[in-house]
Amino acid sequence: MPMKSETDSKDKIEKVATKIFAEKGFDGSSVREIAEKAGLGKPMIYYYFKNKDDLYFKLLETAVSPLCSKIEEVTGTAASPPEKIKGIVGAYQELFWKKPNLFQLVHMAAEKKEKVAGVIAEKYFTRAHLALSDTIQEGIEKKVFKKDNPSMLAFSVIGIILHYLTMGHIIQKVSADRYAPEEFINVLASHIIQLLSVEADGNLP
């Protein structure tokens, strides 16, 4: 079992590295800078991580793995499809609120089409996408969601969530509506559910 000082050093490395990677991306960051900002030597970083690639990958996993597990947990319950959608929105927002640098890190990796992002997508986001697609399919079968391609609808839902979370500060300035942070999750979830609803197409069950 690692000593507390070792755990503190590893936590400090991960915290500093997350911030630097989120701000500068993988190519714009260096192990030297991370070590300096963490107040540690480079050997300490290599004690915990093989190299910069390993550190970067582990940080992305730290963000994405719990998110995907939470989505699978939510969609695996006996809740109604709309309630599951609310849970999925909540899972994304929880990551954004509690660990904004990790959220930014994942977003930047995907935006820059970094190789590691593809590995993370195959390992984790395929699971999250499948869970969301199955939830939408369930909603279609129960005639609460419109008939459409569940897979494409899942991509659209995720796109909406990410857009609102990353552009929320702009949306608040442009929109005539103003919502407190604690209200935002319900407003966004209700908006997505309405878009998926059969009533949006005028097709009542």
Report what the structure shows.
By secondary structure, the protein is mainly alpha-helical. It contains 10 helices and no strands. The protein has helices spanning 4-24, 31-38, 42-48, 52-75, 81-98, 100-111, 115-141, 150-166, 168-174, 181-196. The N and C termini lie far apart (58 Å). The model has no long low-confidence stretch (mean pLDDT 86).
What's the gist of this structure?
With 205 residues, the protein is an all-alpha fold. The protein contains ten helices and no strands.
Give the topology, please.
Blueprint: H1 4-24, H2 31-38, H3 42-48, H4 52-75, H5 81-98, H6 100-111, H7 115-141, H8 150-166, H9 168-174, H10 181-196
Helix pairs in contact: 1-2, 1-6, 4-5, 4-6, 4-7, 5-6, 5-7, 5-10, 7-8
* Helix percent band: over 70%
Order of helices and strands: HHHHHHHHHH
Could you tell me the number of beta strands? 0
The portion of residues forming beta strands comes to under 5%
Low-confidence stretches: none
Q: What characteristic shape results from the CA principal axes?
A: elongated
Average of per-residue pLDDT values: 86
Termini separation: 58 Å
Which terms would index this structure?
single chain; 205 residues; mainly alpha; elongated
